[in-house]
Amino acid sequence: MASLVSHPDEVKVVSKRFGKGATDVDRYLELDGYKAVQKALGMQPDAIVNLVKDSGLRGRGGAGFNTGMKWSFVPKQSSKPKYILCNGDESEPGTCKDRLIFEHDPHAVIEGVVIAGIATGSHAGYIYVRGEYRYLLEIMQKAIKDAYARGFLGKNIFGSGYDFEVYWHGGAGAYEVGEESALMESLEGKRGIPRIRPPFPAVVGLWGGPTVINNAETLASVPHILLGGAEWFSKLGPPKNGGTRLFCLSGHLNRPGVYELPMGYNLKKMIYEVGGGITNGRALKAVVPGGSSCPILTAGEIDVSMDFDSMMKAGSMLGSGGLVVVDDTTCMVKFALRIMKFYQHESCGWCIPCREGTDWLKKTLTRFHAGGGVKKDIDNIQYLSENMLGRTFCPLGDAAAMPTISIVKKFRKEFEDHLEGRPCPFEKAGAAEPAEMMA
Amino acid sequence: MLTHYPTKRSVLVPTLLYAQDEVGYLNHDVIHEIAQRLDLTDLEVSNVISYYSMLTTKPRGKFNVQVCTNIACMLRGGEELLDHCKQKLGIGHKGTTPDGTFSLEEVECIGACSWAPAVQVNYEFHENLTVEKMDRILDRYKQN
Questions:
Q1: How many of the other CB atoms lie within 10 Å of CB of A375?
Q2: C-alpha–C-alpha distance, residues B15 and B101, integer Å
């Protein structure tokens, strides 16, 4: 199983129970488990929504939308059943945190789902776990079974008169399915093609009924907020960016791992003090701050606060918390290529700008990195990416465009160094052929 | 599982993966059986299968070695690990060894970034890998 690390700067909220055997329901109860949901059962739904709104909790999947506000969009009356859908389709490159929540604290996710249900008048929730996370799905299946056995789920939960069912659901391999509307399509047994918005899921979602979709970490944070209060959670981070979050440090770092740090923690400190600095005594070249969909930052841009609003101002995104650190032995053209290869593979194929755009960009970057590039390719790569941005049916097109645009802009010289048939300056002598295209 | 959803079709994706785990791959008989049970056509089921990367309609080796080469793993030797597996097993991406023991696949991010480079063999995670560790892991699977 994935090993845990720690650092003195950590503020453990959502990871408080990690490594403490909390998959066992009795242990979970000992560790303040299922107290928050009982508190929620005694509150007015609007009061719960406002509490979560005021806490400043924003979506931990990547989009960073205020969670309480999302819940408030669910209509009070609905002719169709309302649902809570936990997005456990963690697939954003660089991100490995929901995995730990499922592994160490699955009941917190269940509890968060039920609280979201009470707050919105829903009576059923689905916990979607990506297909590759089979061992975690099995942990979740057992946790759900145990919760039912104790009367925490099902009819009349905790003797409250409120009914709430929770079901697990396993995926079968698809990044795009993490997009909330594609997630619903997948759960309904179809290809994960996104839906047109409006209507938004909170109004028309699963099987046509109002649906709240939240990331697993977002939901796991909710019980802590119910117990600790909105003010406490809010003050852990900067204004409007409350709380802590799990940061997944990876790449050329001496101490990679998943660390829970307050929102607003400084990125430079995160890399050098928490992550232990760059491996092999090399220099930092670039950082992917929050999953591959974010614009990258150069070594000169890392003195920034890791919260949603500061990162937006810095021209990037907080994203999924997937922090990938790149040293100066890395070819940025190859890095851009690998990122585009991912998006081309994962594009659902529905809309032309994404399907054709990612394919053309991957082919061009492949030819370019292998030494077959011409000068106008560089401008074309940027131009095409900029024209994909905002024009695709879902944000996958944006996710492919943003890192590419940032790498071309910030590392143009490296692109120029690949021109005129020159071999990649970073490839060791006798390096392997560019990775074959995946089927 | 059918009682968990308002439509029969909703069980399709997890059911396909469970069926594949049992049978090894989604052949015509399995597709037809599932389609019948869910009031779908074979074509509707095939259309769903083709979308999901873990599902296969072709037989595979007993152990499917999935090597991640996405950014975090690439930075920590994932590509070299893939090349090594190709050489050691004598097969390429989506190939199967003649004795049917191993298949090999280059995959996208499996959620092990902080423990890179990482590989999945069927559903088992193997992390913090080196070429030497990978060899020992493959040898253990072969002995099974």
A1: 11
A2: 25
Cβ distance of B106 and A93 shorter than 8 Å: no
**C-alpha distance from residue A156 to each of A150, A159, A162, A164, A278 (Å):** 11, 5, 5, 8, 54
Query: What is the interface pTM, i.e. ipTM, of the complex?
Result: 0.98
* Beta carbons of A221 and A288 less than 8 angstroms apart: no
**Cβ-Cβ contacts under 8 Å, A257 against chain B:** 114
Structural domains for chain A: 25-235 (3.40.50.11540), 244-327 (3.10.20.600), 332-416 (1.20.1440.230)
Residues B83 and B108 in one domain: yes
Q: What pLDDT digit, counting tens, does each position of B5-31 carry?
A: 999 999 999 999 999 999 999 999 999
Out of A1, A132, A432, the one facing B110 most closely (by C-beta) is A132
- Tokens read off for A264: 């607003």
Measure the CA–CA gap between B15 and A315, rounded to whole angstroms: 43
* Model pLDDT for residues A17-57, shown as the tens digit of each residue: 999 999 999 999 999 999 999 999 999 999 999 999 999 99
**Are B40 and B87 contained in the same domain?**
no
Q: With a cut of 50, which residues of chain A have pLDDT below it? A: 430-439
Token output for B77: 């030797």
Model pTM score:
0.97
